[in-house]
Design the sequence.
């Protein structure tokens, strides 16, 4: 996709960060590092005292022109939250295409070589299941990830986050085509844990789109459900 934040919007967001000094600045994409404003957002947010998180797809670390990206992230103590939908090549290839697993492993090794996965430089991984299924228990999956990635590739990381696939966009269309949408919606409703509501992201997070639109969570951004105000 080609959508890209322009300089005017980036300037306004940086001005807001400088004024309000949020605890966390969470930068996501696609591949947010491709934006010409990514490094400025990082440096200005760190100067404002904010903790910065980069939602990294790992393959960007293998792309021409980004050879120093892992050094930049480490120098600014950016928390890396990296997508790795499985610890096996076959399953990752099914979700994200051929060659992605191997590039992801090399990216993780680059980050480890700079100290990521330690107390100082945080490296967290994200898992989401294939198809109309819920993820397994997070603690058990994290243990499996840590054991296998360490044994097979010498990779360490801090935590694994399990994400439930939301019936939005392309995934929702796939569910409709396979006549699984209603069953998956029932599964989500039946599995909802009300004890999680106090920590829902919409209670403490503002999501800002590439054109400066403001949403109360990432999923409402996907649905284009804006709040009343925006950065514009």
Sequence:
């Amino acid at each position: 996709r080609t959508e890209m934040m322009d300089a005017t919007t980036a300037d306004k967001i940086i001005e807001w960060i400088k004024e309000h000094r949020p605890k966390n600045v969470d930068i996501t994409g696609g591949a947010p590092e491709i934006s010409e404003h990514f490094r400025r957002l990082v440096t200005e947010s760190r100067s404002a005292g904010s903790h910065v998180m980069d939602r990294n797809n790992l393959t960007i670390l293998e792309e021409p022109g980004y050879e120093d990206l892992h050094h930049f992230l480490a120098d600014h103590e950016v928390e890396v939250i990296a997508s790795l939908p499985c610890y096996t090549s076959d399953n990752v290839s099914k979700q994200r295409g051929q060659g992605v697993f191997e590039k992801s492993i090399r990216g993780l090794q680059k980050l480890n070589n700079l100290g990521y996965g330690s107390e100082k430089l945080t490296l967290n991984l994200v898992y989401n299941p294939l198809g109309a299924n819920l993820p397994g228990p997070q603690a058990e999956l994290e243990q499996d990830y840590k054991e296998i990635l360490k044994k097979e590739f010498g990779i360490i990381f801090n935590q694994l986050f399990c994400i439930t696939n939301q019936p939005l966009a392309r995934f929702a269309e796939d569910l409709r085509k396979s006549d699984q949408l209603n069953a998956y919606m029932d599964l989500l409703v039946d599995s909802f844990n009300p004890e999680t509501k106090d920590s829902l992201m919409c209670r403490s997070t503002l999501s800002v789109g590439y054109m400066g639109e403001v949403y109360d969570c990432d999923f409402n951004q996907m649905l284009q459900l804006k709040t009343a105000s925006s950065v514009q």
Summary: The longest strand covers residues 51-56. The beta strands are 24-27, 51-56, 79-83, 123-127, 159-162, 207-208, 214-215. The longest helix spans residues 138-153.
